[in-house]
Specification:
This protein has four helices and eight strands; from the N terminus they run βααβαββββββα. The chain is of the alpha+beta class. It has a single domain, classed as Pleckstrin-homology domain (PH domain)/Phosphotyrosine-binding domain (PTB) (PH-domain like), CATH 2.30.29. It has an eight-stranded antiparallel beta sheet with strand order 1-5-4-3-2-8-7-6. The two termini are about 25 Å apart.
């Protein structure tokens, strides 16, 4: 779900919380060693996201926030903040060339540079959280 998250909107907040869960508590964030990614440079994106990013001349960057049941990829365009809300069961992560990751969900994707060790460690943490949170077994269909 791609949404404008610039303003406080209770209905949108409820939808986001239903998809990816409420934010982690401060104690949980501390225990996890943080839940946010460093600044990620966007190399390429799907058409709808690219159209939003083309509206301004700033460098295309984003960050990722971990939630209990998914992630929120946030980026800015003009003076608005947009969020791509992705539950773990729809999240696909591809490792491309050296230092390039693609976050994919249904018909949206964002290809980012992961040139520093901190960014690579974050993606390892993201994959670990996804593996831990998704149910496993033949009855769930996630084998």
């Amino acid at each position: 779900m791609l949404a404008n998250v610039s303003y406080n909107n209770r209905e949108l907040t409820r939808k986001i919380d239903a998809l990816v869960g409420k934010p982690f508590t401060l104690k949980e964030r501390w225990a996890m060693g943080g839940i946010g990614s460093p600044k990620l440079i966007i190399r390429e994106s799907s058409t709808q996201i690219r159209n939003l990013l083309l509206l301004d001349n700033n460098r295309d960057t984003c960050n990722i926030e971990l939630r209990p049941e998914g992630v929120i990829l946030r980026f800015r365009s003009l003076l608005e903040t947009y969020g791509l809300v992705i539950p773990y069961y729809r999240l696909t992560l591809y490792k491309g060339d050296l230092g390039v990751y693609t976050i994919h969900s249904e018909h949206h994707f964002v290809r980012v540079e992961a040139d520093t060790r901190a960014v690579q460690k974050f993606f390892v943490k993201l994959l670990g959280e996804k593996a831990e949170r998704l149910p496993q077994g033949p009855e769930t269909g996630y084998c």
